[in-house]
Amino acid sequence: MTVLKFKDHFSGHASAYADARPRYPDALFTWLATLTASHAIAWDCGTGNGQAALGLAAHYVQVIATDPSRQQIESAFPHKRVHYRVAIAEYPGLEPHSADLVTVAQALHWFERSKFYARVKEVLQPGGALAVWCYSLCSIDPAIDACVNAFYCGETDSYWPPERALIDEGYRTLEFPFEEIPVPALSMQMSWTLEQFLAYLRTWSAVQKFISKNGRDPVTALNTRLEKFWGGSGVIKTVSWPLHIRVGRV
Q1: pLDDT per position as a tens digit, 61-72
Q2: CATH number of the domain that 147 lies in?
Q3: How far apart are the C-alpha atoms of 51 and 106, rounded to whole Å?
């Protein structure tokens, strides 16, 4: 068996990642579909469990969804138009000029970007588009946000990989050698109970690294602080994340 070398922060909790991560808004994929004249093939790179791939499947005949983590692919959401494969971003095994659109959701900061960008230019059809996006800290209400921000900058701060800084900067400082396209303001929202929100926090790579190193779950203590602000285990609150999107054309 060939072992793919990549920065792996999520394989160990792939099924939890699939269950607990937020879903991207339909409006994002509707807008992305307007960027390409043809809607035959989209390549979702670093697909994880296929969240973005499912959104693309509503607009493209075929979605090639690649990820280097076999565990993530095995936990991915099935769809008749989505074809999953285990592959690293830089060598996806796609034919030259075969894709109308390439997307990368919450993953570009892990790639060898110069090699990936070269592959994108090879794989995209003339006039095709590359769309990359990320989301950083969410917002709920001032009291809860203050607790989460303190957790992010306190208990988990030293456990984040250095690539996380690119997300904190909203990908603004990321090199992006394409003709950029203006992007509408979009956000992502979920209606969650406290238990669902805590499950999401436990998918953070820093939390998993903390648990591995210290043998305890830091989210448990955070839960105690959040309970008095949430209002009860059955209470549903709106959790919002701004999407930081960059789109370019070949």
Answers
A1: 999 999 999 999
A2: 3.40.50.150
A3: 11
